[in-house]
Amino acid sequence: MKKILQLSLGIITSVGGFLEIGSVTTAAQAGAQFGYKLLWAILLGTLCLIFLIEMSGRLAAVSKHTIVDAIRERFGFPFFFFVLLGTVLVAFMVLVAELGGIGFALQILMGIRFPWWALPVSFVVWLLMWKGTFSLIENGASLLGLVTVSFVVAALRLNPDWTSAASGLLPTLPDDDKSKYWFLAVSILGASISPYLTFFYSSGAIEDKWDRTYLPINRVIAAFGMTFGGLLSMAVLIVAALALRPKGIQVETFQQAALMMTTALPKWGFYLFALSMLFACFGAALEISLAISYFFSQGFGWNWSEDVEPSSDARFAFVYTLIIGFAAVPLMFGVDPIKITMMSMALTSATLPLAIVPFLFLMNDPIYLGKHRNGWISNTVVGVVILISFVLAVVSIPLEIMGG
Amino acid sequence: MHLVRDVLDKKLMDREDCPMGRVGGLVMHVGESGPPRVTHILVGGPTLWMRIHPALGRLSSALGQMWGPRRKEPAKIPWSRVETVGREVKLDVEGKDTGALDWEIWVARHIIEHIPGGGSEEEE
Amino acid sequence: MKRLLFATVILLVSCKPPTPAEQMDAILSWVGSAIVLGNGWLRHTTPDTYTRQTLTLSHDQLRQIGAELLKSPPATIDSTELDGALTRSGTHLARMAQLVEARNSPGFNQVLDSLELDQKALKQLSDKIESSQ
Prior knowledge:
The complex is a heterotrimer. By secondary structure, chain A is mainly α. Chain A has a single domain, classed as Up-down Bundle (Amino acid/polyamine transporter I), CATH 1.20.1740.10. Chain A contains 17 helices and no strands. Chain A has helices spanning about 1-15, 20-35, 40-65, 65-110, 115-130, 135-145, 150-155, 160-165, 180-190, 195-205, 215-245, 255-265, 270-300, 315-330, 335-365, 365-370, 375-400. Chain A starts with a helix and ends with a helix. By secondary structure, chain B is of the alpha+beta class. Chain B has a single domain (about 5-125), classed as SH3 type barrels. Helices cover about 30% and strands about 25% of the residues of chain B. Chain B is globular and about 55 Å long. The mean pLDDT of chain B is about 90. Chain C has one domain (about 20-130). Chain C has 5 helices and no strands. Chain C has helices at about 1-15, 20-40, 50-70, 80-100, 105-130. Chains A and C meet through helix 4, helix 12, helix 15 and helix 17 of A and helix 1, helix 2 and helix 3 of C.
């Protein structure tokens, strides 16, 4: 009974926690500019994420190690530190973007510009980390995040031509703006395959004391949770394609993104958009803060747990206090969260091999996984997608500069 | 026992099963007769940074003298205190007495406990 | 080192100068946004503050991009015509923001109609620029 409850909760929290400013911005820009043509990037990213999440859960349940524990122990401190630098730097940028997303949502709701929200928002995020437990954070934020299902409702209301949409699931080049197309593809992949999600998930599995009996649940949560989440991203793209593209509206700003929902759901669309972004970015900010703190704490062997008082895991608490504080600073000075979002999504893609290749090695190591090692399918899917993401990132970013 | 694979970078647990950090380094005694043997486990920043580059190790050491618990040397735990080596390295010591938790205690007392709701380390 | 390179490259991406066709697309995007927004406001589906602020933003963006475009306008179009269309749109956007503040729906509706005519004119100019590229 407990396991069924955990299963349902796991799927719900995956769905509610899927969308955040990166996935919404990239999907909205893609839909507004290229119609359905980039649906394949969301599909590919989601597929890869399903395998990665399943792997994180399996590693934790079988080896009783989180990914970070295992990276430190298997590869040693110097390599671990190298991975830490790259991964945490990018994750920090994403955190800034998420806090900015919360600020923007409040800006369009209340009319007060987002830099003014930077400090109060950071404070609330920090307070929830300081006082809350892992369950409260994971479940509470993700349940609230279910308001993002309104994007699916909006997509259905707009009555898409499903055959046209389905054709977007296979890569087709646009007639022009090819460099922007590939840059967006890279950003979508980076938005879907965020390494911090895997660190967060494996830490959660350890906090919840998973063992081998949880392996089936883990598979179901990964498959269903991430699939439904991916469908949410696709819904955003479809709404943008139908509501914004015909009117020539590009999504340069958050304020313009809101217009896709006001068109699709005239009465409540605006508020649903604002609340969706508010809760989705909130959940993501909490997850990323936790993931970064987990990375430091697990890597250095400090006490870490969201279920104890801060003084019992002082360095863990100190890390998230520091990063949340620092993350507010660029926003206070008015740095555009949308620009940071696009930058960090592309950078995530470019640095994926750094986080995921060691992880793949671990998933094939009999010392950690015994007979539960990766099969050829997991290795192939993850390996291929990471390679594609990396190559695309390296190629498309300079192409974007040279103008295609 | 394969020291690098089985001991280095592993989590350390004290006699009460409390985490004490990770094995940062090992001290070996190379005598005139007999094989080299491990004498101590090292825990702490300078040891770790030294593994990336000796200059970083020295910098870490220097910074450690100016701030925090101001340890002159890394925490050193005699190898004789090792009970078992498995998923973790289990030690027959009290974590707080080894010096391995000096930074944790320092951050708790000087920073965390001053923030409302931070709790008190001594309550445990 | 690689990461630093990527970061620099991405910074450069955001600084890459846009082509006239891209600038016109951006202008049309802002005008289009204002029209959708305006229609939404008239139906009471968007709040006053958000509408006013976004209209002001559209106006500012239009002025900024328009000024850049007029510095070196493409030879295929009449730059006086472009200047005129941009000025009219800008004025209409500013007026719409004021009318939202005054909660004057009938007045707003009239100016919105004018903005839709501006959009047509700008679209014709944009098509000329695109076809020459």
